[in-house]
Amino acid sequence: MRQLYPVFIQDDEMERRVVRKLDWNLLPLLGVLYLFSFLDRVNIGNARLFGLEEGTHLSDGQYNIALAAFFLAYCAFEIPSNWVLVRIGPRLWIPILMVAWGSISLALAWVTSFTGLLIARFALGSAEAGFVPGVLFYLTLFYKRSEHSLRIAIFLSFNILAGAFGGLLAAAIANLTGVWGLQGWQWIFIIES
Predict the structure, then answer these.
(1) 165 by DSSP, 3-state: which?
(2) To bridge 121 with a disulfide, which of 70, 80, 94, 97 should be the other Cys (CB 3.0-4.6 Å)?
(3) pLDDT digit string (tens) for 9-51?
(4) Does the predicted TM-score (pTM) go above 0.90?
(5) pLDDT at position 47
(6) What is the DSSP letter of 53?
(7) 8 Å CB contact between 118 and 56
(8) Longest dimension (CA), the chain
C-alpha cells in the first residue's frame, strides 16, 4: 500500500540550526524596533531639556498632562490593538503601527501649543500600544513554549540600550539648533522619529 504523506523524522540538529537562525535574524530586528519605540516614547523628556517648554509655551502642569496623555492612550488602546492584531495578523499590523508612531513622532517637531502636544502624545500612545503585545504574539509563531522566556528577555532588554544612549543621542542632535531655522528639541523629534 502506498503512503500518502511523508514520514516525519525529527532532526534535533536541524531544529537547533533553525532556532539559531531565527535568533540571529528575528530577535535583533525586533529588538531594534523596540529600541526605536522606546526612544520615541521618552524623547519628550530630552526635548524638554532643549527648549520644548519655551517653544510651545508650556507650564510644568501642562507638560505633565501631556506626559500622562501618552500613558492614558497606551492603556486604553492596548486591548483594541490586540483585537486588530488577531484579525489582520502581526505581519501587517506591526508595520502599520511602526509607520504610525514614526509619523506621529515626526509631527511632534511642529507642535506649537499645549493642545497640539496633548493630541500628538495621545496619538503616539495609541499607536505604540499594540507594538509590544504584537511582537510577543509574533514570537509565539516561531518559538516553542520552552524557548519563549529567553527570547522575550532578549527582546525587552533593548529598552535598556535606549535608556543608556538616548540622552547622549539627544544631546548630539540638539547641537543642530538653528539649522534650517529649527530648534534643538525639534531636531530631536525629527531625527529620532
Answers:
(1) helix
(2) 70
(3) 777 788 888 889 988 988 899 888 888 888 888 888 888 888 8
(4) no
(5) 81
(6) H
(7) no
(8) 82
Which residues make Cβ contacts (< 8 Å) with residue 37, sequence separation at least 6?
A: 101, 128, 131, 132
Which residue from 191, 192, 184 is spatially nearest to 52, judged by alpha carbons?
A: 184
Phi and psi at residue 6, in whole multiples of 5°? -70, 155
Q: Give CA–CA dist 98/93, Å, rounded.
A: 9
82 closest CA partner among 93, 98, 71, 96: 93
**CB contact set of 119 (below 8 Å; sequence gap of 6+):** none
Q: Give every CB contact of residue 72 below 8 A, 6+ residues apart in sequence.
A: 122, 125
Q: Cα–Cα distance between 10 and 121 in angstroms, integer?
A: 50
Distance CA 189, CA 97 (A): 17
Residue 180 DSSP one-character state? G
